[in-house]
Amino acid sequence: MGKNLFRWTILIVLFLWALPSWSALDGERLYRNHCMVCHGEEGGGGVGVPLAMPSFLNNVDDDFLFKTIRHGRPGRVMPTFEYLSDAQVNALVSYIRSWSDQPAPRFSLEPIKGNAEVGKKLFAERCEVCHGETGEGGKGTGVTMSRPRDLPIIAPALNNEGFLAAASDELIRHTLRKGRKGTPMVSFLEAGLNDQQIDDIVSYVRSFEQTAERKPVLEAESASLIVESPYSFEETVENVRQTITGKNFRLIREQYMDTGYVPEGQENKKQLILYFCNFNFLNSALTIDPRVGIFLPCRITIVEQDGIVQVMAINPMRLSRIFNNVELNEACHEMRDVYTEILEDATL
Amino acid sequence: MRRLLCLLLLLISSAVVWAEDDELLMVRSSLEFPEAMAALQEAVTEHGYTISRVQRVDIGLTAMGYKTDKYRVVFIGKHEQQKLIMQKHPELIPYLPIKVAIFAEGDDTLLIAANPVLLSEFYPDPSLEKYFRRCESDMRSILVKVQEAE
Domain B22-148 maps to which CATH number in 1.10.3290.10, 3.40.50.970, 1.20.1090.10, 3.30.310.70? Predict the structure, then answer.
Protein backbone atom coordinates (compact mmCIF):
# COMPACT_ATOMS: atom_id res chain seq x y z
CA MET A 1 0.00 0.00 0.00
CA GLY A 2 2.75 2.41 1.08
CA LYS A 3 4.83 1.61 -2.02
CA ASN A 4 1.85 1.98 -4.36
CA LEU A 5 0.95 5.32 -2.88
CA PHE A 6 4.55 6.44 -3.32
CA ARG A 7 4.58 5.37 -7.01
CA TRP A 8 1.27 7.04 -7.75
CA THR A 9 2.41 10.20 -6.04
CA ILE A 10 5.59 10.24 -8.12
CA LEU A 11 3.62 9.64 -11.33
CA ILE A 12 1.09 12.38 -10.63
CA VAL A 13 3.78 14.82 -9.65
CA LEU A 14 5.82 14.05 -12.77
CA PHE A 15 2.72 14.44 -14.93
CA LEU A 16 1.89 17.80 -13.38
CA TRP A 17 5.48 18.90 -13.75
CA ALA A 18 5.63 18.01 -17.42
CA LEU A 19 2.22 19.48 -18.27
CA PRO A 20 3.28 23.13 -18.52
CA SER A 21 6.32 22.17 -20.58
CA TRP A 22 4.18 20.29 -23.08
CA SER A 23 1.65 23.07 -23.36
CA ALA A 24 4.46 25.62 -23.62
CA LEU A 25 5.53 23.89 -26.80
CA ASP A 26 2.12 24.48 -28.33
CA GLY A 27 3.07 27.06 -30.97
CA GLU A 28 -0.47 28.26 -31.50
CA ARG A 29 -0.97 28.90 -27.80
CA LEU A 30 2.37 30.70 -27.58
CA TYR A 31 1.44 32.78 -30.60
CA ARG A 32 -1.90 33.72 -29.05
CA ASN A 33 -0.20 34.71 -25.79
CA HIS A 34 2.76 36.62 -27.14
CA CYS A 35 2.29 37.67 -30.76
CA MET A 36 -1.37 37.80 -31.75
CA VAL A 37 -2.09 41.17 -30.19
CA CYS A 38 0.29 42.93 -32.60
CA HIS A 39 0.46 40.58 -35.59
CA GLY A 40 -3.22 39.60 -35.76
CA GLU A 41 -5.00 36.32 -35.19
CA GLU A 42 -3.82 34.81 -38.46
CA GLY A 43 -0.76 36.95 -39.05
CA GLY A 44 -2.63 39.68 -40.91
CA GLY A 45 -0.61 42.41 -39.17
CA GLY A 46 -1.54 45.49 -37.17
CA VAL A 47 0.95 47.06 -34.80
CA GLY A 48 3.31 44.37 -36.10
CA VAL A 49 4.11 43.30 -39.67
CA PRO A 50 1.77 40.93 -41.55
CA LEU A 51 3.69 37.71 -40.94
CA ALA A 52 1.36 35.62 -43.10
CA MET A 53 1.92 37.76 -46.19
CA PRO A 54 3.25 35.22 -48.76
CA SER A 55 5.93 37.53 -50.10
CA PHE A 56 7.28 37.82 -46.56
CA LEU A 57 6.85 34.31 -45.19
CA ASN A 58 8.02 32.49 -48.33
CA ASN A 59 11.17 34.59 -48.53
CA VAL A 60 12.53 34.49 -44.99
CA ASP A 61 14.14 31.45 -43.41
CA ASP A 62 13.44 29.94 -40.02
CA ASP A 63 16.73 31.28 -38.70
CA PHE A 64 15.54 34.84 -39.42
CA LEU A 65 12.23 34.24 -37.64
CA PHE A 66 13.96 32.57 -34.69
CA LYS A 67 16.48 35.36 -34.22
CA THR A 68 13.84 38.05 -34.71
CA ILE A 69 11.75 36.56 -31.92
CA ARG A 70 14.80 36.13 -29.73
CA HIS A 71 16.40 39.57 -30.26
CA GLY A 72 13.41 41.69 -31.30
CA ARG A 73 14.01 45.08 -32.83
CA PRO A 74 15.43 47.34 -30.12
CA GLY A 75 13.70 50.70 -30.19
CA ARG A 76 11.24 49.61 -32.91
CA VAL A 77 8.34 48.16 -30.89
CA MET A 78 9.07 44.44 -31.49
CA PRO A 79 10.25 43.27 -28.04
CA THR A 80 12.89 40.68 -27.26
CA PHE A 81 11.63 37.31 -26.07
CA GLU A 82 14.73 36.31 -24.18
CA TYR A 83 12.70 34.50 -21.54
CA LEU A 84 11.28 31.95 -23.97
CA SER A 85 13.22 28.71 -24.30
CA ASP A 86 14.72 27.67 -27.65
CA ALA A 87 12.05 24.96 -27.85
CA GLN A 88 9.31 27.54 -27.37
CA VAL A 89 10.75 29.88 -30.00
CA ASN A 90 11.03 26.94 -32.41
CA ALA A 91 7.40 26.05 -31.70
CA LEU A 92 6.44 29.63 -32.56
CA VAL A 93 8.46 29.52 -35.78
CA SER A 94 6.78 26.24 -36.77
CA TYR A 95 3.35 27.69 -36.10
CA ILE A 96 4.05 30.83 -38.16
CA ARG A 97 5.49 28.61 -40.91
CA SER A 98 2.27 26.57 -40.97
CA TRP A 99 0.50 29.51 -42.66
CA SER A 100 2.46 28.81 -45.83
CA ASP A 101 2.10 25.78 -48.06
CA GLN A 102 5.62 26.27 -49.38
CA PRO A 103 8.74 24.87 -47.72
CA ALA A 104 10.87 27.34 -45.78
CA PRO A 105 13.76 28.74 -47.81
CA ARG A 106 17.27 28.09 -46.54
CA PHE A 107 19.95 30.72 -46.70
CA SER A 108 23.67 30.39 -46.16
CA LEU A 109 25.17 32.31 -43.24
CA GLU A 110 28.33 32.99 -45.24
CA PRO A 111 29.11 36.69 -45.68
CA ILE A 112 28.74 38.17 -49.16
CA LYS A 113 31.68 40.15 -50.45
CA GLY A 114 30.59 43.26 -52.28
CA ASN A 115 31.92 46.79 -52.51
CA ALA A 116 30.28 48.73 -49.69
CA GLU A 117 31.42 52.07 -51.13
CA VAL A 118 29.62 51.36 -54.41
CA GLY A 119 26.73 49.97 -52.39
CA LYS A 120 26.47 53.22 -50.46
CA LYS A 121 25.86 55.17 -53.69
CA LEU A 122 23.32 52.65 -54.93
CA PHE A 123 21.60 52.69 -51.54
CA ALA A 124 21.29 56.49 -51.73
CA GLU A 125 19.77 56.22 -55.20
CA ARG A 126 17.44 53.27 -54.70
CA CYS A 127 16.78 52.53 -51.03
CA GLU A 128 17.13 55.73 -49.05
CA VAL A 129 13.74 57.09 -50.02
CA CYS A 130 12.00 54.38 -47.99
CA HIS A 131 14.66 53.09 -45.58
CA GLY A 132 16.14 56.48 -44.69
CA GLU A 133 19.58 57.98 -45.19
CA THR A 134 21.24 55.78 -42.59
CA GLY A 135 18.89 52.82 -42.88
CA GLU A 136 16.80 54.01 -39.94
CA GLY A 137 13.56 52.81 -41.53
CA GLY A 138 10.16 54.38 -42.09
CA LYS A 139 8.58 56.73 -39.59
CA GLY A 140 5.52 55.93 -37.55
CA THR A 141 6.55 52.63 -36.09
CA GLY A 142 3.65 50.94 -34.44
CA VAL A 143 0.93 52.57 -36.48
CA THR A 144 -2.00 50.20 -36.47
CA MET A 145 -4.94 49.84 -38.76
CA SER A 146 -6.89 51.92 -36.26
CA ARG A 147 -5.06 54.95 -37.63
CA PRO A 148 -4.98 56.10 -41.26
CA ARG A 149 -2.46 53.92 -43.09
CA ASP A 150 -1.97 53.22 -46.78
CA LEU A 151 0.48 50.32 -46.66
CA PRO A 152 0.48 47.00 -44.80
CA ILE A 153 4.10 47.42 -43.78
CA ILE A 154 6.50 50.18 -42.75
CA ALA A 155 9.99 50.15 -44.27
CA PRO A 156 12.13 48.24 -41.75
CA ALA A 157 15.11 49.80 -40.00
CA LEU A 158 18.07 48.14 -41.71
CA ASN A 159 20.52 49.67 -39.24
CA ASN A 160 18.73 48.11 -36.29
CA GLU A 161 20.93 45.72 -34.34
CA GLY A 162 18.07 43.20 -34.10
CA PHE A 163 17.58 43.19 -37.86
CA LEU A 164 21.31 42.85 -38.54
CA ALA A 165 21.55 39.96 -36.09
CA ALA A 166 18.60 38.16 -37.68
CA ALA A 167 19.13 38.72 -41.40
CA SER A 168 21.91 36.85 -43.15
CA ASP A 169 23.63 38.46 -46.14
CA GLU A 170 21.99 35.92 -48.40
CA LEU A 171 18.53 36.73 -47.06
CA ILE A 172 19.14 40.43 -47.76
CA ARG A 173 20.38 39.57 -51.24
CA HIS A 174 17.35 37.37 -51.87
CA THR A 175 15.02 40.18 -50.77
CA LEU A 176 16.75 42.68 -53.05
CA ARG A 177 16.52 40.25 -55.97
CA LYS A 178 12.89 39.24 -55.47
CA GLY A 179 11.33 42.23 -53.71
CA ARG A 180 8.21 41.90 -51.56
CA LYS A 181 5.04 41.68 -53.56
CA GLY A 182 2.27 43.75 -51.96
CA THR A 183 4.70 46.29 -50.51
CA PRO A 184 6.73 49.13 -52.08
CA MET A 185 9.83 46.86 -52.02
CA VAL A 186 10.45 46.07 -55.68
CA SER A 187 12.73 43.46 -57.27
CA PHE A 188 15.98 45.25 -57.98
CA LEU A 189 16.88 42.71 -60.62
CA GLU A 190 13.75 43.72 -62.50
CA ALA A 191 14.53 47.35 -61.72
CA GLY A 192 17.78 47.04 -63.65
CA LEU A 193 20.50 46.23 -61.10
CA ASN A 194 22.87 43.32 -61.73
CA ASP A 195 24.02 40.70 -59.23
CA GLN A 196 27.27 42.52 -58.43
CA GLN A 197 25.44 45.76 -57.68
CA ILE A 198 23.01 43.89 -55.43
CA ASP A 199 25.95 42.35 -53.57
CA ASP A 200 27.42 45.83 -53.16
CA ILE A 201 24.21 47.01 -51.50
CA VAL A 202 24.25 43.94 -49.23
CA SER A 203 27.78 44.82 -48.11
CA TYR A 204 26.76 48.39 -47.46
CA VAL A 205 23.78 47.28 -45.36
CA ARG A 206 26.05 44.91 -43.44
CA SER A 207 28.39 47.83 -42.76
CA PHE A 208 25.62 49.35 -40.61
CA GLU A 209 26.81 46.92 -37.95
CA GLN A 210 29.63 49.36 -37.24
CA THR A 211 27.10 52.08 -36.44
CA ALA A 212 24.08 49.94 -35.52
CA GLU A 213 21.33 51.68 -33.63
CA ARG A 214 21.69 50.75 -29.98
CA LYS A 215 18.76 50.38 -27.68
CA PRO A 216 18.49 53.74 -25.97
CA VAL A 217 19.30 53.70 -22.32
CA LEU A 218 16.87 56.01 -20.63
CA GLU A 219 17.93 58.12 -17.74
CA ALA A 220 17.12 56.71 -14.34
CA GLU A 221 14.55 59.28 -13.34
CA SER A 222 12.00 59.49 -10.61
CA ALA A 223 8.69 57.89 -11.59
CA SER A 224 6.66 60.87 -10.40
CA LEU A 225 7.17 64.60 -10.73
CA ILE A 226 6.22 66.27 -7.45
CA VAL A 227 6.47 69.89 -6.36
CA GLU A 228 5.33 71.40 -3.06
CA SER A 229 3.21 74.51 -3.47
CA PRO A 230 3.64 77.60 -1.27
CA TYR A 231 0.02 78.55 -2.00
CA SER A 232 -3.26 77.34 -0.54
CA PHE A 233 -4.97 74.38 -2.17
CA GLU A 234 -7.51 76.58 -3.96
CA GLU A 235 -4.87 79.05 -5.14
CA THR A 236 -2.68 76.23 -6.39
CA VAL A 237 -5.57 74.68 -8.35
CA GLU A 238 -6.27 78.02 -9.98
CA ASN A 239 -2.57 78.50 -10.79
CA VAL A 240 -2.39 75.06 -12.40
CA ARG A 241 -5.54 75.76 -14.46
CA GLN A 242 -4.07 79.00 -15.78
CA THR A 243 -0.67 77.49 -16.49
CA ILE A 244 -2.21 74.60 -18.43
CA THR A 245 -4.26 76.86 -20.69
CA GLY A 246 -1.31 79.23 -21.02
CA LYS A 247 0.70 76.37 -22.49
CA ASN A 248 -1.85 75.78 -25.24
CA PHE A 249 -3.57 72.83 -23.63
CA ARG A 250 -7.30 72.52 -23.17
CA LEU A 251 -8.72 71.60 -19.75
CA ILE A 252 -11.10 68.73 -20.44
CA ARG A 253 -12.21 67.64 -16.99
CA GLU A 254 -11.74 68.12 -13.27
CA GLN A 255 -12.34 65.20 -10.99
CA TYR A 256 -11.69 64.24 -7.36
CA MET A 257 -9.50 61.22 -6.73
CA ASP A 258 -12.41 59.27 -5.28
CA THR A 259 -15.02 60.23 -7.87
CA GLY A 260 -16.91 57.11 -8.86
CA TYR A 261 -16.02 55.33 -5.61
CA VAL A 262 -18.07 57.39 -3.17
CA PRO A 263 -21.51 58.98 -3.51
CA GLU A 264 -21.52 62.34 -5.25
CA GLY A 265 -20.91 65.17 -2.79
CA GLN A 266 -18.92 63.01 -0.36
CA GLU A 267 -15.62 63.15 -2.24
CA ASN A 268 -12.40 64.36 -0.63
CA LYS A 269 -12.28 67.88 -2.02
CA LYS A 270 -8.55 68.22 -1.28
CA GLN A 271 -7.51 65.65 -3.87
CA LEU A 272 -8.24 67.00 -7.32
CA ILE A 273 -7.23 65.76 -10.76
CA LEU A 274 -7.08 68.17 -13.70
CA TYR A 275 -7.22 66.45 -17.08
CA PHE A 276 -6.08 68.38 -20.13
CA CYS A 277 -5.16 67.81 -23.74
CA ASN A 278 -3.49 69.28 -26.78
CA PHE A 279 -5.19 67.39 -29.61
CA ASN A 280 -2.43 68.00 -32.10
CA PHE A 281 0.13 66.55 -29.70
CA LEU A 282 -2.23 63.68 -28.87
CA ASN A 283 -2.75 62.83 -32.53
CA SER A 284 1.02 62.84 -33.12
CA ALA A 285 1.64 60.58 -30.13
CA LEU A 286 -1.02 58.10 -31.26
CA THR A 287 0.47 58.08 -34.74
CA ILE A 288 3.86 57.20 -33.30
CA ASP A 289 2.42 54.46 -31.14
CA PRO A 290 -1.29 53.75 -30.65
CA ARG A 291 -0.60 52.00 -27.37
CA VAL A 292 0.09 55.28 -25.56
CA GLY A 293 -3.45 55.28 -24.17
CA ILE A 294 -2.00 54.35 -20.82
CA PHE A 295 -0.49 57.85 -20.67
CA LEU A 296 -3.78 59.49 -21.54
CA PRO A 297 -5.14 62.01 -20.97
CA CYS A 298 -2.54 64.46 -19.67
CA ARG A 299 -3.09 64.98 -15.98
CA ILE A 300 -1.93 66.99 -12.98
CA THR A 301 -3.06 66.02 -9.47
CA ILE A 302 -3.21 68.50 -6.61
CA VAL A 303 -3.34 67.06 -3.10
CA GLU A 304 -3.44 68.65 0.34
CA GLN A 305 -2.35 66.47 3.23
CA ASP A 306 -1.52 67.68 6.75
CA GLY A 307 -1.58 71.27 5.50
CA ILE A 308 0.96 70.63 2.75
CA VAL A 309 -0.14 71.17 -0.85
CA GLN A 310 1.61 69.09 -3.51
CA VAL A 311 1.27 69.18 -7.28
CA MET A 312 2.04 65.88 -9.05
CA ALA A 313 2.31 64.24 -12.43
CA ILE A 314 3.63 60.99 -13.81
CA ASN A 315 7.08 61.08 -15.39
CA PRO A 316 6.44 59.85 -18.95
CA MET A 317 10.18 59.21 -19.41
CA ARG A 318 10.07 56.51 -16.77
CA LEU A 319 7.25 54.69 -18.52
CA SER A 320 8.41 55.08 -22.10
CA ARG A 321 10.89 52.20 -21.90
CA ILE A 322 8.06 49.66 -21.76
CA PHE A 323 7.05 50.55 -25.33
CA ASN A 324 10.46 49.83 -26.95
CA ASN A 325 9.89 52.72 -29.33
CA VAL A 326 12.62 55.32 -29.86
CA GLU A 327 10.27 57.78 -31.53
CA LEU A 328 8.01 57.65 -28.52
CA ASN A 329 10.95 58.40 -26.21
CA GLU A 330 11.21 61.81 -27.86
CA ALA A 331 7.51 62.55 -27.32
CA CYS A 332 7.79 61.41 -23.69
CA HIS A 333 10.79 63.66 -23.21
CA GLU A 334 8.77 66.59 -24.53
CA MET A 335 5.82 65.72 -22.29
CA ARG A 336 8.09 65.38 -19.24
CA ASP A 337 9.36 68.91 -19.90
CA VAL A 338 5.81 70.24 -20.27
CA TYR A 339 4.74 68.66 -16.97
CA THR A 340 7.84 70.04 -15.23
CA GLU A 341 7.18 73.55 -16.55
CA ILE A 342 3.53 73.45 -15.45
CA LEU A 343 4.48 72.24 -11.98
CA GLU A 344 7.18 74.87 -11.58
CA ASP A 345 5.22 77.78 -13.06
CA ALA A 346 2.11 77.02 -10.99
CA THR A 347 4.07 76.92 -7.75
CA LEU A 348 6.50 79.76 -8.43
CA MET B 1 10.48 10.32 0.54
CA ARG B 2 9.54 13.71 1.97
CA ARG B 3 12.73 15.19 0.57
CA LEU B 4 11.98 13.71 -2.83
CA LEU B 5 8.45 15.09 -2.78
CA CYS B 6 9.70 18.52 -1.71
CA LEU B 7 12.20 18.50 -4.54
CA LEU B 8 9.55 17.55 -7.06
CA LEU B 9 7.14 20.17 -5.75
CA LEU B 10 9.89 22.75 -6.11
CA LEU B 11 10.40 21.67 -9.69
CA ILE B 12 6.68 21.94 -10.36
CA SER B 13 6.47 25.44 -8.98
CA SER B 14 9.46 26.57 -11.00
CA ALA B 15 7.91 25.11 -14.16
CA VAL B 16 4.53 26.74 -13.55
CA VAL B 17 5.86 30.23 -12.93
CA TRP B 18 7.76 30.35 -16.21
CA ALA B 19 8.90 33.84 -17.00
CA GLU B 20 6.18 36.22 -18.05
CA ASP B 21 7.77 39.51 -17.15
CA ASP B 22 5.82 41.58 -19.66
CA GLU B 23 5.79 45.21 -18.70
CA LEU B 24 2.96 45.90 -21.09
CA LEU B 25 -0.06 43.63 -20.88
CA MET B 26 -1.82 43.40 -24.23
CA VAL B 27 -4.55 41.24 -25.71
CA ARG B 28 -6.49 41.17 -28.95
CA SER B 29 -10.19 40.40 -28.84
CA SER B 30 -12.03 39.19 -31.91
CA LEU B 31 -15.07 41.12 -30.65
CA GLU B 32 -15.96 44.39 -32.27
CA PHE B 33 -15.37 47.47 -30.14
CA PRO B 34 -18.81 47.91 -28.49
CA GLU B 35 -18.98 44.23 -27.49
CA ALA B 36 -15.37 44.24 -26.26
CA MET B 37 -16.07 47.37 -24.23
CA ALA B 38 -19.10 45.69 -22.65
CA ALA B 39 -17.04 42.56 -21.94
CA LEU B 40 -14.35 44.70 -20.30
CA GLN B 41 -16.88 46.44 -18.07
CA GLU B 42 -18.31 43.09 -17.03
CA ALA B 43 -14.88 41.56 -16.35
CA VAL B 44 -13.78 44.59 -14.30
CA THR B 45 -16.88 44.38 -12.11
CA GLU B 46 -16.58 40.61 -11.72
CA HIS B 47 -13.07 41.07 -10.35
CA GLY B 48 -14.31 43.48 -7.69
CA TYR B 49 -13.05 46.69 -9.30
CA THR B 50 -14.98 49.86 -9.93
CA ILE B 51 -14.81 51.87 -13.13
CA SER B 52 -14.18 55.38 -11.94
CA ARG B 53 -14.21 56.94 -15.36
CA VAL B 54 -14.10 56.31 -19.12
CA GLN B 55 -12.18 58.79 -21.26
CA ARG B 56 -13.48 58.88 -24.86
CA VAL B 57 -10.28 59.75 -26.69
CA ASP B 58 -11.77 59.26 -30.16
CA ILE B 59 -14.62 61.72 -29.54
CA GLY B 60 -12.24 64.57 -28.71
CA LEU B 61 -9.96 63.79 -31.64
CA THR B 62 -12.69 63.53 -34.26
CA ALA B 63 -14.33 66.69 -32.94
CA MET B 64 -11.04 68.44 -33.66
CA GLY B 65 -10.94 67.04 -37.21
CA TYR B 66 -8.48 64.15 -36.72
CA LYS B 67 -9.16 60.66 -38.05
CA THR B 68 -9.25 57.81 -35.60
CA ASP B 69 -11.14 54.64 -34.90
CA LYS B 70 -12.85 54.09 -31.55
CA TYR B 71 -10.46 54.64 -28.65
CA ARG B 72 -11.22 54.79 -24.94
CA VAL B 73 -9.25 54.79 -21.69
CA VAL B 74 -10.95 53.02 -18.79
CA PHE B 75 -9.89 53.93 -15.22
CA ILE B 76 -10.39 51.17 -12.67
CA GLY B 77 -9.62 50.67 -8.99
CA LYS B 78 -10.70 49.49 -5.56
CA HIS B 79 -11.43 52.43 -3.30
CA GLU B 80 -10.10 51.08 0.01
CA GLN B 81 -6.88 49.84 -1.56
CA GLN B 82 -6.41 53.08 -3.44
CA LYS B 83 -6.79 55.02 -0.18
CA LEU B 84 -4.19 52.83 1.54
CA ILE B 85 -1.65 53.29 -1.26
CA MET B 86 -2.26 57.03 -1.29
CA GLN B 87 -1.56 57.23 2.44
CA LYS B 88 1.52 55.01 2.35
CA HIS B 89 3.02 56.19 -0.93
CA PRO B 90 1.55 59.55 -2.00
CA GLU B 91 4.13 59.65 -4.79
CA LEU B 92 2.07 56.97 -6.56
CA ILE B 93 -1.04 59.18 -6.66
CA PRO B 94 -0.44 60.30 -10.28
CA TYR B 95 -0.66 56.65 -11.37
CA LEU B 96 -4.02 56.01 -9.73
CA PRO B 97 -6.55 54.77 -10.65
CA ILE B 98 -4.93 52.26 -13.00
CA LYS B 99 -5.94 52.32 -16.67
CA VAL B 100 -6.83 50.06 -19.55
CA ALA B 101 -6.59 51.50 -23.07
CA ILE B 102 -9.06 49.90 -25.47
CA PHE B 103 -9.21 50.64 -29.17
CA ALA B 104 -10.64 49.22 -32.37
CA GLU B 105 -8.49 47.73 -35.06
CA GLY B 106 -10.68 46.77 -37.96
CA ASP B 107 -13.10 44.13 -36.71
CA ASP B 108 -10.90 43.37 -33.70
CA THR B 109 -10.29 45.28 -30.50
CA LEU B 110 -6.98 45.72 -28.70
CA LEU B 111 -6.66 46.17 -24.94
CA ILE B 112 -3.50 47.43 -23.29
CA ALA B 113 -2.44 48.11 -19.71
CA ALA B 114 0.86 48.78 -17.98
CA ASN B 115 1.75 45.88 -15.73
CA PRO B 116 0.77 47.11 -12.21
CA VAL B 117 3.93 45.47 -10.85
CA LEU B 118 5.88 48.28 -12.50
CA LEU B 119 4.52 50.61 -9.83
CA SER B 120 6.09 48.57 -7.06
CA GLU B 121 9.38 48.73 -8.96
CA PHE B 122 9.18 52.52 -8.82
CA TYR B 123 8.92 52.58 -5.02
CA PRO B 124 10.13 49.27 -3.58
CA ASP B 125 8.07 48.19 -0.57
CA PRO B 126 7.24 44.52 0.13
CA SER B 127 3.64 45.29 1.09
CA LEU B 128 3.16 47.25 -2.13
CA GLU B 129 4.68 44.49 -4.20
CA LYS B 130 2.24 41.99 -2.74
CA TYR B 131 -0.66 44.27 -3.60
CA PHE B 132 0.52 45.01 -7.13
CA ARG B 133 1.23 41.29 -7.79
CA ARG B 134 -2.40 40.61 -6.94
CA CYS B 135 -3.40 43.53 -9.09
CA GLU B 136 -1.31 42.12 -11.98
CA SER B 137 -2.99 38.77 -11.60
CA ASP B 138 -6.42 40.47 -11.68
CA MET B 139 -5.45 42.55 -14.70
CA ARG B 140 -4.25 39.51 -16.64
CA SER B 141 -7.43 37.68 -15.72
CA ILE B 142 -9.61 40.63 -16.81
CA LEU B 143 -7.82 40.89 -20.15
CA VAL B 144 -7.98 37.15 -20.79
CA LYS B 145 -11.69 37.20 -19.97
CA VAL B 146 -12.28 39.86 -22.62
CA GLN B 147 -10.06 38.01 -25.09
CA GLU B 148 -12.04 34.83 -24.60
CA ALA B 149 -15.48 36.46 -24.54
CA GLU B 150 -17.72 35.61 -27.49
Answer: 3.30.310.70
Which pLDDT does position B11 carry in this prediction? 44
Say yes or no: ipTM exceeds 0.95: no
The residue in chain B having the minimum alpha-carbon distance to the alpha carbon of residue A293 is B101
**Residue ranges of chain A that CATH labels 3.30.310.70:** 224-346
Q: What is the pTM of this model?
A: 0.81
The pLDDT value given to residue A152: 66
Please determine, for residue A63, whether its predicted confidence score (pLDDT) is greater than 90.
yes
Interval A212-237 mean pLDDT: 81
Count Cβ atoms within 10 A of the Cβ of residue A147 and give its class: 0-12 exposed, 13-18 middle, 19 or more buried: buried
Whole-number mean pLDDT of chain A?
Answer: 88
Cis omega (within 30 of 0) on the bond before B97?
yes
* Closest CA–CA distance from residue A61 to any residue of chain B (Å): 27
Residue spans in chain A of domains classed CATH 1.10.760.10: 24-211
> A223 vs B19: CB contact, 8 Å cut-off?
no
Which of B51, B91, B102 lies nearest to residue A260, judging by beta carbons? B51
* Nearest Cβ partner for A17 among B1, B15, B90: B15
Of A313-317, B11-15, B86-90, the poorest mean pLDDT is in B11-15
Range A76-80 contact pairs with CB under 8 angstroms and sequence separation of 24 or more? A76/A137, A76/A141, A76/A156, A76/A157, A76/A160, A76/A162, A76/A324, A76/A325, A76/A326, A77/A38, A77/A47, A77/A48, A77/A141, A77/A142, A77/A289, A77/A323, A77/A324, A77/A325, A78/A38, A78/A48, A78/A162, A78/A324, A79/A324, A80/A162
Class of A224-346 in CATH: alpha beta
* Domain A24-211: top CATH class: mainly alpha
